[in-house]
UniProtKB/TrEMBL annotation:
It comes from the Bacteria. Residues 36-272 form the PseI/NeuA/B-like domain. It comes from Microbacterium pygmaeum. SUPFAM superfamilies: Aldolase. One of its GO terms (biological process) is carbohydrate biosynthetic process. Gene3D superfamilies: Aldolase class I. This is N-acetylneuraminate synthase. InterPro entries: Aldolase_TIM, PseI-like, PseI/NeuA/B-like_N. One of its GO terms (molecular function) is N-acylneuraminate-9-phosphate synthase activity.
Length: 290
């Protein structure tokens, strides 16, 4: 089974759908968001992803008044969450820039009003963040949009994943194996979950959402059959913010896209044949003919 997101088809037999997660790495700055969109487009990804919150709803109560040191001074965590949110006009500006650069764009809504907000701007799809996998009210709102849904499975048990898919259904679903550690160490990658999820949910495309340093684990995910790959991006991993350290800088993103396409080509079709490039060595080296 495949899922169509905008002009892209996600699933077996198609190039891996590559998502550059901008998330909150724009730090509330539209110009920075546009620069990150340019980085993504120049690297050759298919889509960029943001996060959308109604901070008064989505911020856990025990976190709201926690002091946070920010580039704009010390403020409460709730104030910080409001500070880095974009309004409708800003999102339209960002969306237009993404579309002009040939990219799909969508976001992870963290609450039901954010679903309506994104629907009003007509996103191509919706992404469920790992932290929201158990939010049944949110899942129901997303299901009811009829849009394709990309579901990340970090910080979740298999029973919780089963329950979420029970709500969402499988018709327009892309599953993403993920481990929600920032940055993630290799021993927590558990990439064999990719075939496990594929076997458990036949016909559902399975991809990989990574938070590791470097490229190797994402490339291995593609070799294991991931049909989509999502990675956070930044202009500079040393920038202020919680996700920059687990993000790829522009050169890293370019190398990732290049190397994923090489791996896809190298996987072939599994049918044994003698390739044209082997004919000269065959003639030169094989002593006993078949």
């Amino acid at each position: 089974m495949t899922v169509t997101i905008g002009s892209n088809v996600v699933g077996g037999g198609h190039p891996a759908y590559l998502i550059a997660e901008i998330g909150l790495n724009h730090n509330g700055d539209v110009d920075l968001a546009k620069k990150l969109i340019d980085v993504a487009a120049d690297a050759g990804v298919d889509a960029v992803k943001f996060q959308k919150r109604t901070p008064e709803i989505s911020t856990p109560a025990h976190m709201r008044d926690v002091p946070r040191e920010t580039p704009w001074g010390t403020m409460s965590y709730l104030e910080y969450r409001n500070r880095v949110e974009f309004d409708r006009d800003q999102y339209i500006e960002i969306a237009d820039h993404a579309l002009l650069r040939g990219l799909e764009w969508f976001a992870s809504p963290w609450d039901v009003p954010s679903v309506a907000f994104l629907e009003d701007i007509n996103v191509a799809a919706h992404k469920v963040a790992s932290a929201s996998l158990t939010d049944t009210e949110l899942l129901e709102a997303l299901r009811d949009t009829g849009k394709p849904i990309i579901l990340s499975t970090g910080m979740s048990t298999m029973e919780q994943i089963d329950a979420a898919i029970g709500v969402l259904g499988t018709d327009r679903l892309v599953l993403m194996h993920a481990t929600s550690t920032y940055p993630m160490e290799p021993e927590e990658a558990n990439l064999r979950m990719i075939p496990t999820l594929r076997d458990r949910f036949p016909g559902v495309p399975v991809g990989y959402s990574g938070h590791e340093r470097g490229l190797q684990i994402s490339l291995a995910a593609v070799a294991l059959g991931a049909v989509a790959v999502e990675r956070h991006i930044t202009l500079d991993r040393t920038m202020w913010g919680s996700d920059h350290a687990a993000s790829l800088e522009p050169a890293g993103l370019q190398h990732l896209v290049r190397d994923i396409r090489i791996v896809e080509t190298a996987l072939g079709d599994g049918v044994k044949r003698v390739f044209p490039g082997e004919l000269a060595p065959l003639a030169k080296l094989r002593r006993v003919a078949a």
